[in-house]
Amino acid sequence: MADVRYFLGIDVGGTKLAAGVVDNDGRLLCAERQPTQAALGPEIVLERLMAVCHAAIASSGVQLSQIVAAGIGCPGLIDSVQGLVDLPGNLPGWDRVPLAARVREALQMPAFLENDANAAAVGEHRFGAGRGAADMLYLTLSTGIGGGIIIDNQLYRGSTGGGGEIGHMSLRYDGRPCVCGSIGCFEAYASGTALAARAREALPTHPDSALAMVRELTAQAVVEAVRAGDALAKRVWDETMIALAAGLASLIHIFNPSRIVLGGGLTNAGELLFEPVRRHVRTRAIRPLAEACEIVPAQLGDNGGVLGAAAVGMARSPV
Amino acid sequence: MADVRYFLGIDVGGTKLAAGVVDNDGRLLCAERQPTQAALGPEIVLERLMAVCHAAIASSGVQLSQIVAAGIGCPGLIDSVQGLVDLPGNLPGWDRVPLAARVREALQMPAFLENDANAAAVGEHRFGAGRGAADMLYLTLSTGIGGGIIIDNQLYRGSTGGGGEIGHMSLRYDGRPCVCGSIGCFEAYASGTALAARAREALPTHPDSALAMVRELTAQAVVEAVRAGDALAKRVWDETMIALAAGLASLIHIFNPSRIVLGGGLTNAGELLFEPVRRHVRTRAIRPLAEACEIVPAQLGDNGGVLGAAAVGMARSPV
């Protein structure tokens, strides 16, 4: 019997902090969560994060000395070699924070940092819907669109570690402004935020829509209205699915991947999303490339962040 | 002194066939060219191609037995493992032609097939403007837009060998139809053909433009009119440069490459192209990623096809 090895997965988000102990087969022994309270700034958040890590280790029953390494997933532009986090939109004040070094010192173990979408890609590839696909893309469809690229079974980081910003490829280069400062980015058309924005913009001309009555016009509210048969919701949903499929067709032309794994809140819509997306991709992508690529839902769900971060620690630790 | 090794580079195009003998330092000993006469169909073209190859070898002074391998660059969807060419738009009747096997049998040497843009990427990476860039993209801006992706010093082919179809990423997903059957592809906005089409469409409302007088409204004619100060030409050129920069910014976000090499006829415009493209990329791309990427002209010029094909033979032959 091969030795079991343990890793700590640390998931830093704008709204919650999570940590869990994971074994090398992807079994999550336990996970602890706390609100981030990002407004308190990086020092307080780091203190809170270490408390979450210690709590996770304590409740796992695994000794600190048995844990090989920590992996950390964090939003923002990551320097994965130096282990720095730079200016994540939802973590105010994080200006070149040496997150990997801080975790390493506090927990006395090797610690490796990746962008959160990259970590989720590594997790799905190792333990989830991406298993066995040597060339795979992972996209998280949520507030924005994050991406991770697996090439030849390895995470692709690019020349300075900033690759995989799939949400910021142009989908309509003279179109909607994007939060990143550019124009017409994929996430300005096909994220949950974009879906809700489309609905909000169309409401004044569709006062009879059920969406006129909801308190907060979120992506989730649009999905519910689509299921209830609301015409406006259906229209903006269809438009969003076409934009999403156009982006996936672009990626299929560029990467010729064998699998695209979609995760994030928007994919909770299930077949309501996957059926039209697969159909539109078939009409837009070069046939043999479209046929070579499965489009499947992520499998790791709410634990994807922690499992992905642990998988990063695993991938970067010598066996 | 290390032994000199020789390779045969074979460049199959819709208008011309070329072959040349290249040594392992990228010196082209000789090159032979003939018109393709593509309308005569694959069998006649293959006969003509073998004649070009034999002529190149004869005039090189190198013995057939001294040539390690042949590399072949060819348009169309390529199965680089099986060595098949499928349905290149400009080679009518080429339906799963086993081009690598035909060359291997006729010349009695190993033969390796790649898409022509992929071969040019390998050539620029090994011998030209891409030297030393481990993560590099090559784009040819011509009738269409072809692309080749170098990752970790290797050509990236994707799961079935069809990757790198950069010209068919969406730039405006609800925009111009593309020859590929999809909508709003990069090459429908930023190729030489797209430039000429923009000018042609704008002419009726600009009868005073110098372009109204040219016999054939080509990309080259537009470039000349821009240099002569024609207002319409300048407008469509500016629009095309913005589209080109938007596509490059997308690729920078996805790949975080250290270098993008641009070749093909449109780049003969020189700084008229590179200056605005670099400027627009800086305004559209995430700053650290834009700063990490040089955008430079290809260096291999008219011999890029033959040198690239030879580099493919070299890359795929055991040392």
Structural write-up:
Two copies of one chain form a homodimer. In chain A, a hairpin with a 3-residue loop joins strand 8 and strand 9. The first copy, chain A, has two domains: 6-124 and 302-315, ATPase, nucleotide binding domain (Nucleotidyltransferase, domain 5), CATH 3.30.420; 133-298, ATPase, nucleotide binding domain (Nucleotidyltransferase, domain 5, 2-Layer Sandwich). Helices cover 38% and strands 21% of the residues of chain A. Chain A has helices at 42-60, 99-107, 116-127, 187-190, 192-202, 219-227, 231-255, 271-284, 287-291, 304-315, and strands at residues 6-12, 16-23, 28-35, 67-74, 77-79, 84-86, 111-115, 136-141, 145-151, 154-155, 259-263, 294-297. Chain A contains ten helices and twelve strands. The first copy, chain A, is an alpha/beta fold and 319 residues long. Chains A and B meet through strand 9 and helix 7 of A and strand 9 and helix 7 of B.
Element-by-element helix/strand order of chain A: EEEHEEEHEHEEEHHHHEHHEH
Q: Which CATH class of the largest domain in chain A applies here?
A: Alpha Beta
**Helical residues, percent of chain A:** 25-40%
**Shape descriptor of chain A:** globular
User: Which regions of chain A are unreliable across 5 or more consecutive residues at pLDDT < 50?
Assistant: none
